Amino acid sequence: MNLIKTSILSGLAQLIRIFTGIIVTKVIAVLIGPTGIAVIGQLQNLLNLSTLFSGDFLKTALLRFTARYNQSENEDVADIWSASIKIMMSLSVITSILLYLFSNKLAIYFLKDESYHIILKTLAFSLPLFVLNSFFLAILNGLKKIKLYIYISILINIVSLILVCSLSYFFGLQGALFAYVTNQSIVFLLTIYLIRDQSWFKLKNFRKQCFDKISTYKQLLKFSSITFTAIVSSSISMLYVRSFLIENLSIEITGIWQALWTLSTLCIGLITTSLGTYLLPTMSGTNDKKILNKELKDSLKILIPVSFSCLALVYLLRDFIVLALYSADFTTMRDLFAWQLVGTLFKIVGWLFSIAFVSQGLVRISVTIEIFFALLWCILTSLFVEKFKLDGAVYAFALNSFIYLIVVGVVYKKIV
Predict the structure, then answer these.
(1) Diameter of the chain measured on Cα atoms
(2) pTM for the complete prediction?
(3) 197 φ, ψ to 5°?
(4) Tens of pLDDT along 6-20?
(5) Could you tell me if residue 198 is left (phi over 0), alpha (psi between -120 and 50 degrees) or otherwise beta?
(6) Cα–chain center distance at 322
(7) How far apart are alpha carbons 257 and 392 in whole angstroms?
(8) How many CB atoms sit inside 10 A of residue 26's CB?
(9) Do residues 242 and 256 lie in contact, with contact meaning Cβ atoms separated by under 8 Å?
């Protein structure tokens, strides 16, 4: 399946994701308001960290090695799968126990309300299913079973839509939080049903005794350090920025910023996921620099005009979008759109170069870049918010994204 076909299918899945996300956002905005959006943002970051420490950081490495070994018909792919699932299950059990034991303290620190400890205890039980679902999706993507991969991705969005909307309506914010910590557990059961007849879905492929093959674990963990660093740095920096805004502005204003950030994330996801579904396994399957450069140039020809057009349209329709997606309580965010979308454009183009680093296993470079720019974002936000208030948050994001694009572009030209 080529770039165009894969991008169209992925784009369709992302459109459905955005459509369901719009409905979810609207429901939460109307029923709960800016405060609810801010709290849900905190939970999503905590959820990302929890799944990360449960072994979800292995999924990019799993995708890369599955794509490479499958392309060369190497039987060692079963070693990779077996090692991955052993690590993931071990880590998920440990993380779940810790999450359950410290649920009260975590609820106070992250969600600002101890009564939400039951949400975190529920997450503790559902974490292993979250991770297993991610495990099988990574294999599907690595094997280039794109249609099935996208179909399951769409199911995740639909299940999330139904759960979040219904539970928010009947139980308010607590219902919405409960939906977020259980949706992928339900989808996992659907995933198992849909892949049950796949030729690779056999127990023997996941239970190989590979403890004597230290190299298998080393290459998995080495490459996975990229994903681990990226998620940790982004989640912690998000938690810092959101907490800084709450303390220095207010939780209501932070909810407005979170609403804009969510919209920006949807734009990034629509474009990058559409291309990434094709690019990561394709780039991972080659060491030829000419092929790599060709894929990059072809992608840039699509990425830049499509991104600019989409973001320009979002800016022109910003008043309609604010009222359609949120409510009149969020109208002040319209003045923040320009610089947020400029930063989003820089971030999207920079993402393409970072994908090239990941596909070629450039661990040290990827890790260094992720940590540096997460720290820089926190520093810029602190400085700009003190001087420009809420406007400073979008100035900081735009400047950080611009510097990021320059750096990854220069590094790619020199190294890859």
Answers:
(1) 61
(2) 0.69
(3) -100, 5
(4) 666 666 777 787 788
(5) beta
(6) 23
(7) 11
(8) 16
(9) no
